[in-house]
Sequence to fold (218 residues):
Amino acid sequence: MEGTDPVNKKLAAALSGGAVLVVALSGCSSNKGTDPKLIAWAKTVCDAVPAQDAKIKAANEAISTTASDTTSSAATIQKTDSQAFQDMSDGYKALAAAISSAGAPPGVDDGAKRQQNVVTTLNSLSASYADLKKKVDALDTKDQAKFASGLQDVASQTTQLETQSKSGTAALNALEQGEVKDAIAEQASCKKVSSTTSTGASDPASAPASTSTSSTAG
Fold:
């Protein structure tokens, strides 16, 4: 749709990096002898990751696909973006809930603090995406100029999301240290997510996430 296409592409590009958070939990080495309790904790966390990772990536892809289709109507863009924001919000909220219910990683110094920092940042991201959904839902699809202007305002708010994503990644990296990293590295579910991210690097929407995780996965 003329007028909204460049804006929606900007929106898609800005949001695609958010997927980094769900794949940051992927160790690349494993030391045998890790505390069994910590292994059990890591399994609880990692088992919740694949489904939410898939949901968030699919939401990013939906926005990207709609953005690349110049024939998309305002109503289609609104519907797609609204559902995508809802899915992202739900995905991060579910991840926060999983890490919260898992409790602090056992035997880890400042484990409770690190865990809470991750939960806080993920819940914050969830709330931000929920807010974007409300703003998209309120756009006037019957007036192209107003819709394009409103979508531009939504896209401009992604700067906050980028900041939150960086904070979330930092919190996850802080949580994933030492034996926690080793325990996570042994989990098939986290390995699956890491592998999927690597194979999806050719997808433009996956590129930011792939680039960002290259420094955290190894």
Q: What stands out?
A: The first helix runs from residue 5 to 16.
